[in-house]
Amino acid sequence: MKTKKPLIFIVDDVPENIQIAMSHLKELDCDFAYATSGEQALERIAATSPQLILMDVMMPGMSGFQVVEALTRSEKTCSIPVIFLTARAESEDVVRGFKLGGVDYVTKPFKGVELRSRVRNHLELHAYRSNLERLVEERSREAELLKDVIIEAMGELAEYRDPETGSHIHRTRAYVQLLAEALVAQGHFLELLSKEYIVLLWKCAPLHDIGKVAIRDSILLKPGKLTPEEFDEMKMHAQYGEEVIANLEQMAGKPTSFLSCAKDIAGSHHEKYDGSGYPRGLAGDAIPLAGRIMAIADVYDALISKRVYKNSLSHEEAMSIMLEGKGTHFDPILIDAFLEVEPHFRQIAANNLD
What we know:
Elements: E1 7-11, H1 15-25, E2 31-35, H2 38-48, E3 52-56, H3 64-72, E4 82-86, H4 91-99, E5 104-107, H5 112-160, H6 168-185, H7 195-204, H8 217-220, H9 228-252, H10 257-268, H11 289-304, H12 315-324, H13 332-351
Parallel strand pairs: 1-2, 1-3, 3-4, 4-5
Helix pairs in contact: 2-3, 6-7, 6-11, 6-13, 7-10, 9-10, 10-11, 11-12, 11-13
């Protein structure tokens, strides 16, 4: 594929100066664009996104300094390197140029070899930075993808312990996202439920039952009702899951947003709004919002799903039980949002059958 030539943008109110600069730089195999006033330069630079700007300082109307000040205020143009060209070489002008973000300063009349050398150096530096930024971006995407795959694999590890749970993690993560978006649409918890945090909820939801890997098969897969002692052991999976993720935080050396979210989900999705849940008996707003959201998704899906110890309920039967839990098991605000989107819950379940 043919490599695109770098674009050099020249700003000078004297057209002859522009022609001279272009003639000196033509051997660099670049493309050129130009403007003869500051106002014209702002419009054309924004439209062309050059790799380097050669900026005359003394011009009628906007000076070169004023043009660069305006360029730095725009996200689109603030990072374009600027070389100032001027007949004035007073130290205060040079200092001002560098303070404004200029990368170099060439005095007129300039020599061709000097101008070419300066321009070549900055084009090479710009290309290096662009390649480095692209490499960092690629590595970040790879790391994010690897993290997502590991999270889902860890979630599925817990689900494989129970072959009847099937697509549980895929359904619950979709429920969680849907419910969080419904809360935002209703104007609730806006200080926490940013777009980024909702993505975290979606990514971390598969880890809600990761603690089940520490529960004995004789309890996890028991076809009948658990004894009180067995149920006490089963309830420990929430604490185990929280501890696993807390250990990951320690290994990471510092808290991370996604591990913090995952820890909240794993450790608090069995807490109840009235304080009767486990493992800590938290109540109301003391339960992390991520756990309150996950509780609705997890319980609804458990109700409509067949397990070794029970048959599945219909959507209508599940909805009746969910509504009975308003204010006791579940946050009333979340139940109201759940009611707004419950047909979509039903559709998600239909699209992800075990």
